[in-house]
Design goal:
The structure is a homodimer of 219-residue chains. The first copy, chain A, contains 9 helices and no strands. Chain A is an all-alpha fold and 219 residues long. At the A-B interface, helix 6, helix 7, helix 8 and helix 9 of A face helix 6, helix 7, helix 8 and helix 9 of B. Chain A binds a DNA duplex (30 and 30 nucleotides) through helix 1 and helix 3.
Chain lengths: 219, 219
DNA sequence: GATGTAAAGTGAGTATAATCAGTTTTGACT
DNA sequence: AGTCAAAACTGATTATACTCACTTTACATC
């Protein structure tokens, strides 16, 4: 009703701004987005190169070519930066995994394969994975919470779809949540408590088998 | 073979030290232990009164009547202090819970009751529980690792005993680990992700029921 | 008791995550 | 163009976990 701007409505418009249009994004908004991207890129490079603890917020600000104060306008804390860095990448990874589900005979084998692929992703950068694991446990800000939720939703949806496709399972949602809880705990044992990855995954296989096939195992 | 000290072997012994004996504790050792206890007590009181974040290491050192430097001779970090504070108390709680297991008809109901009692313990101090949850995920020092391990062993042993007592379960160790993983995840959802406790525990009940009674539920 | 030495203790100092009072930029309206 | 308010930005400053060069204490040996 008031934001309407037909096609000949450049009344007070600057000459060089024609293609941008008045409505939608707006220059401010786009600048902010670009700056956010620059910050995240700078943080990712530094975290990867020299680790989280040895990277100072000063370095990130310098690399992103902004003042230290500005950094905290975009991220509530250094830890938040870590989450920002990995959110997109992890979401993409998870979606790619579920987009091409493994073709194996049994449901528990398929689930294990999916979790193994997720673990592969973490194996590339165990130190960062550890940090993430720790930081994501207790989301401090609402922003972080929603980031985590989005990731979890993607995982639950993927798992539930896989499980629901196997007709013998009565309650796919519950089983999906249980399966993920078991995987999460395996990840914790591996990256957190320092257990051998193979050992953790073998245990997970047994657990998933029990979860899917029931108490009596496969005799 | 070489530590032998009969009963008349006080060759170079000081007069006033007779009852203490040369071997065993030693005054230095006992002093250190007492100081450690004082530090832990001071830290616990302050954490409880004003929370972890709002307690400075300076305050703890003052309350324990030692220098700031000395504090870090006893704890590697402020986070380590938190673990020191809760290790003893949590171990005691867990042991008390398993020493008096609930007398309920079904195994999954008994497990749920045990987990509920653990959750009660955390409910008394959710903020501290959150912190613990976070700090215990990735133990940094070996000392902390062994503290966590001791606690976990107590829990696994208790759960495995409960489960093994129910004859229908084929593999108690695996089921115990699975049950704890499900509980841990419920705790995370409740204290970490901010879900309602009742909701989390109802979900846990369904998960435990499925874990114990198998896929077909209870029809 | 005197002496040497290793353990324990100390607090001024350091590094750095996060803040905030002040400055600059943006863009709507005349 | 000129004006204004709001948004974005800034880096000097602050708060505090942790360190380290030095001092003090404990105790074995003479």
């Amino acid at each position: 009703m008031e934001r309407e701007s037909g096609d000949g409505a450049q009344i007070g418009m600057m000459p060089g701004e024609a293609d941008t249009g008045l409505a939608a994004p707006g220059r401010r908004e786009r600048n902010k987005l670009a700056k956010r991207a620059r910050i995240v890129a700078a943080a990712r490079d530094l975290f990867r190169r020299q680790g989280f603890a040895d990277t100072t917020t000063q370095q990130i600000a310098d690399a992103a070519d902004i003042g230290t104060g500005t950094l905290f306008l975009y991220a509530r804390s250094k830890e938040d930066l870590l989450v920002m860095v990995f959110r997109d990448e992890m979401l993409e990874t998870v979606r790619a995994i579920f987009a091409d589900p493994p073709r194996l005979a049994s449901l528990d084998a398929r689930l294990l394969a999916v979790f193994n692929r997720m673990a592969d992703y973490h194996a590339d950068d165990p130190d960062l994975a550890r940090l993430l694991l720790k930081e994501l446990v207790v989301p401090r800000s609402e922003a972080r919470r929603s980031d985590v939720d989005e990731l979890m939703d993607a995982i639950y949806d993927g798992l539930t779809a896989m499980i629901a496709a196997a007709p013998q399972v009565r309650n796919p949602a519950i089983v999906a949540r249980s399966a993920f809880a078991l995987y999460y705990f395996a990840l914790l044992s591996w990256l957190g408590a320092g257990q051998d990855r193979g050992w953790c995954m073998r245990l997970l296989r047994e657990q998933l088998s029990h979860l899917i096939n029931g108490n009596g195992a496969d005799d």
